[in-house]
Amino acid sequence: MSAIAIDIGEKRYKAQVGGPGREIFRGFRLDVAAGDFVALLGESGIGKTTLLNIVAGLDRDFRGQVRFGTKAPRFAYAFQNPRLLPWRSVVENVALPLPAGEPGRRRALAMLGEVGLAELADAYPERLSLGQQRRVALARAFAIEPDVLLMDEPFVSLDEAGAARLRDLLRRLLARRPATVLFVTHDRREAVELADRIVVLEGTPVRIVRDMPLALTPAERASPGRIDEVRRALGAGVEPG
Ligand SMILES: Nc1ncnc2c1ncn2[C@@H]1O[C@H](COP(=O)(O)OP(=O)(O)OP(=O)(O)O)[C@@H](O)[C@H]1O
Q1: Which residue has a Cα nearest atom 24 of ligand 1?
Q2: What are phi and psi for residue 30, nearest 5 degrees?
Q3: Kind of pairing, strands 4-13 and 22-32?
Q4: ipTM beyond 0.90?
Q5: Residue 113 CA, ligand 1 centroid: distance in Å
Q6: Spans of the chain below 50 pLDDT
Q7: 111 φ, ψ to 5°?
Q8: What is the CATH number of domain 4-74+145-234?
Q9: Which residue's alpha carbon is nearest to atom 30 within ligand 1?
């Protein structure tokens, strides 16, 4: 059975004043196997965030259903903006989804150690670079050992070296705590480096125009030639990455 079975009969946003509104999904289906890392590529404004919100249960204003392979799966959601609470220390931010008290704090500290930020545990988010804030967001996401990890362009606006370090970190975290991942990106290279499957979305309402499994070794994922090959196979229609 799939870890996530998405079946959206219809999702539309109402127009601000009168008008027919905008239909984002009609008859959209996507099944994701347990433990798969699926990269979702598609132009800006097409509906990728809407899809993640529907899967997360944050948006219930649609016709259809999302079913999960496990009962009551644990979700973690990592956004483009790390969304740390500025009035809480780094360790308190990581401990937010955990039960209050000492065990939660210890677990948060251990997660910070894993993402290489143990020494900043008592700092406040404003002191951190964007890359460090995103590490904290990853620590918070993995602290609950999620079954389903939803990521919405979590590494955008970093320089290439910073983004590469975060991709590495994500791979390591997933190796220790496997999860089923839906990862939105505009960057095909990022998709090739991380994903087991790349799904390209297009149009209004959204349809799947490419659905490509990627069984690559780590060396192949890092090979510029192989990355170019997959990028070409994905075709036009997605912003260059
Ligand atoms: N609450 C809302 N009310 C009305 N329209 C909305 C709402 N949220 C999103 N939209 C519109 O729905 C469309 C899909 O938005 P969504 O954020 O899902 O796209 P996206 O593919 O994630 O875009 P991006 O890549 O730019 O983040 C957009 O045209 C957006 O303007």
Answers
A1: 44
A2: -150, 125
A3: antiparallel
A4: yes
A5: 36
A6: 237-241
A7: -65, -40
A8: 3.40.50.300
A9: 45
Do residues 25 and 184 make contact, with C-beta atoms less than 8 angstroms apart?
no
- Please choose, from the candidates 238, 235, 184, the residue with its C-alpha nearest in 3D space to the C-alpha of residue 30: 184
Domain residue limits, the chain:
4-74+145-234, 86-144
Closest C-alpha among 174, 238, 176 to residue 44: 238
Ligand 1 center–CA 224 separation, angstroms: 32
State residue 236's pLDDT score.
Answer: 56
Residue 40 CA to ligand 1 centre (angstroms): 15
**Residue 36 C-alpha to ligand 1 middle, in angstroms?**
25
Q: For 82-129, what is each residue's pLDDT tens digit?
A: 899 999 999 999 999 999 999 999 999 999 999 999 999 999 999 999
d(CA 80, CA 64): 27
Output the ligand 1 site: residues, CB below 6 A.
13, 24, 42, 44-50
Could you tell me the distance, in angstroms and rounded to a whole number, from the CA of residue 94 to the centre of ligand 1? 28
| Ligand 1 atom index nearest CA of 42 | 21
Question: Hunting for tokens 């997605």 — which residue is that?
Answer: 238
pLDDT of residue 128: 96
Distance CA 229, CA 20 (A): 41
For atom 26 of ligand 1, the residue with the nearest CA is: 44
Structure confidence by residue, pLDDT tens digits, 195-211: 999 999 999 999 999 99
| Helix (H/G/I), strand (E/B), else coil: 219 | helix
